[in-house]
Amino acid sequence: MRRARAEILSARRLGAFHSLTLVAPEIAERARPGQFVAIGMPEDRSFFLRRHFFIHQASKRGGWAGTLEIGFGRGGPGTEWLASRRAHGFLDVIGPLGKPFAYPRRLTNCFLVADGHGAAPLYFLGQELRSRGKRVDMLVGAPSLEEVFKPIEAKRLSQTVAFVTSDGSLGERGAVVDLLPEMLDRSGAEVLYAAGPRETLRSIADVCRARRLPAQVAVEERMGCGLGLCFTCVVPVIRKDGSGYDNLRACVEGPVLNPERIFWDRWAPVGKRSTPTPVEGFPVVREWPE
Amino acid sequence: MKATTAVDLNGLAFQSPVLVASGCFGTGKEVSGIVDPGKLGGVVTRTITALPRRGAPGPRVGETISGMLYCVGWQNPGVEAFLDEELPRLARPGLPIVVSVGGASLEEFVRVTGAVGRAPGVAALEVALGGPDEELGLEAFAARPERAAEVAGAVARLAPLPVFAKLPALVADLAETARACVRAGVHGLTLVDAVPAMAVDIDAMRPLLGGATGYLSGPAIRPIAVRAVYEVARVLPGVPIIGVGGVVTGRDAAEMMLAGAWAVQVGTAALVDPAAPVDIAQGLLAFLREKGLASPADLRGLLRTARGGGVG
Predict the structure, then answer these.
(1) Same-domain status, A14 and A154
(2) Would you state the pLDDT for residue A272?
(3) Are residues A235 and A132 in the same domain?
(4) CATH architecture of the region B7-55+74-193+219-299
(5) Which H helix or E strand runs over B256?
(6) A234 touches chain B (CB under 8 A)
């Protein structure tokens, strides 16, 4: 983890998204997919907690070496302030933070599901998987065409790609989980990676469990510091031995988690009911073995 | 004149008057690359209870204007795991550790104190009296002076260390509550605990926090903290007060000290920038030099009376 005063190399608008490319060699060279950066806000203190963004791209070689890119959509005043930044300004950046995605050693067919902002870390992951000789297929969902992050990038990275939007303005109309089972069959997926809102992740986790498909998900949880200090971004995670669960910090023990170990009935309950811990404990789940 | 940042709180010495407030330093390894712990005045741990606590439901954090709205619900591993795993990682020579003692009953405060009071590396205890009193069904232990004094006094008698009572600002009679705690034997006071607060996402028509209400910290509460320090310092001039609430710069720390604080703690600002307590101490030193003062203690008592005149 490093702290940098990073120059903004470019600030672009991409549909409903903003993209910032930052010069931060010490962070870029350490960055791995699934990790995030914490960006400082202006000094007038009107809103001052750091904002946290998945690393969308980190270039270690070539003309863009030492840069990293983040992409983000509409948000509160902090995000709006960031969206108004221009090239050659400076940002206070801490990163890379959090636990990254693990790559499969043996298995080769990787299936990536991105919903909304989740596309940002998954494209980075797709590129790293490709460079390791893995097959990458992708399913990308968003409310509308405008809100699909870099569709061309998804096409460039994947063997096959499908888009799904709530209004049908790009690809099929519906949600990612509607298309997921059929696409998994067609691509011969052996492992799955996903990022997006928790309700989407829950529906994806259900599909993976039914198919005994090993998976990793990157959670988006509201954070106070992003550094592991404040314990506000916790996710209920089942212990390895199934004896109960612990509230783990998404910023340190995550944001990449094994969906089999997330206590979904507590974190993303269906309906209004919050489920107590089962008296008999939890099933012991497989760790990421491949 | 050579200015120093060292302070002496009636026998409890800190090389810098700027400590990290409770729950803002993690478990000892998170920010190792960003701040040199050797330059901190000290660290107050997250609040420790007798048994492990999972804490409040999420979302646990939101932001309001100049404020951090949160409710962690004292998530902690319990005093035994704290002593076995967390404290050894936090403790290092030259870094005073203040353990924040929590509980839902008098008995729980006593149990935690009994376990941490003699642990190696602990310089002082801070009794978190802003939490709910489940025994008496009070919103906070600090809601009644006699109850605050009962709990703080029990901790003070049991611990062979200086004990600070941490009080919320908005109680019926803050000065009386503070006085009762001092009479019961505490060494000093930490003022103030975060302010009970709430915010609503009006589009979703839902509270910002999972537990609906929480606590406000950050620059938004600084004037509330300054007033609390001032009111208590006036009636208890010989009692060490640690001011906490919205301190972000050295000048903010100077304001707390002019109001009567002997030292300050930095919470929210340390979450944004873990090195903030070091920068704040430097800023305070620059302010002291500018005013020709030798130490932070010299600021106490320099506050002039409020300007008269105007309409009455």
Answers:
(1) no
(2) 59
(3) yes
(4) Alpha-Beta Barrel (3.20)
(5) helix B250-259
(6) yes
